[in-house]
Amino acid sequence: MPTQYEISINPTSAKGDILSHDGSSRIRIATGTNGQILTASSSAGLLWKTFSTSADSDVALIADVTTTSSLSIYTISSIPQTYQDLKLLVISDSSADTGSIRVSLESTQGTNHHEVQVRQANNGTVSATYATGVSYFNLDSGMQNLVKAFNDVDIFDYASTDKFKTVLHRTGNYLEGYGTNHYGSGYYANTTAVSTIVLRGNGPTMDSGARFILYGIKRSS
Questions:
Q1: What is the reported pLDDT for 57?
Q2: DSSP states of the chain as a string?
């Protein structure tokens, strides 16, 4: 039986106990449950915590949907506000010869989307266009007949309520025998946090088998 002095020197008493200090005296931290990890806490010092992939990892899958029928619009809603940035991947084609996908932040759309695009055409020429005060970001040639087009969209500071959201997007596809690339850079001029992303087929519908993948990303502070 340990004495009070021995307990004060080393209060651990069970398998897995950790000797720590609370700022005034030595304390015992009992072992956590299976799968928990030991984390630093500004209030508790050391704390056992249950690891959650969706809440604690730097990159987490929010949505991954493959459509089973053709559609002209798809909405990703109830986006959690626990990350700094979003990465949206859109893989789609169309039975029409060509088409684009329009990405709107928030279902109200409004006139808050502004962007500049650079396009490498299938003959090798490069051109630039801009759009201001519109209701979408345009993934130019984001759909092609019988060919999957890959669209990559980054939305920065989407959960912020005191700044506009920077948006970058890239599209790669195969058009009329050539590979083409499209790049866009812009911003969403609204300080409201983004909880909904709306995707629309511009012209043709998106064929069955379109895939929408959304990730939440945490940045190192």
A1: 63
A2: ---HHHHHH----STT-EEEE-SSSEEEE----TTEEEEEETTTEEEEEE--HHHHSSEEEEEEEE-SS-BSEEEE----S--SEEEEEEEE-BSSSEEEEEEEESTT-TT-EEEEEEEE-TTS-EEEEEEEEES-EEEEEEEEBTB-EEEEEEEETTT-SSS-EEEEEEEEEEETTEEEEEEEEEEE---SPP--EEEEEESSPBPTT-EEEEEEEPPP-
Tell me, what's the pLDDT at 147? 57
pLDDT at 175: 56
Q: State the CATH architecture for 56-217.
A: Sandwich (2.60)
Strands 178-188 and 165-175: antiparallel
Q: How far apart are alpha carbons 164 and 154 in whole angstroms?
A: 14
Beta pairing, strands 178-188 & 137-144: unpaired
Residues of the chain with pLDDT under 50: 5-7, 142, 146
Q: Which structure tokens are listed for 10?
A: 């080393």
The per-residue pLDDT for 5 is: 44
Q: What is the pLDDT at residue 6?
A: 47
CATH 2.60.120 segments of the chain = 56-217
Q: Provide the pLDDT for residue 11.
A: 59
Q: How far is CA 34 from CA 16, 40, 50, 55, 173, in A?
A: 12, 18, 9, 18, 47
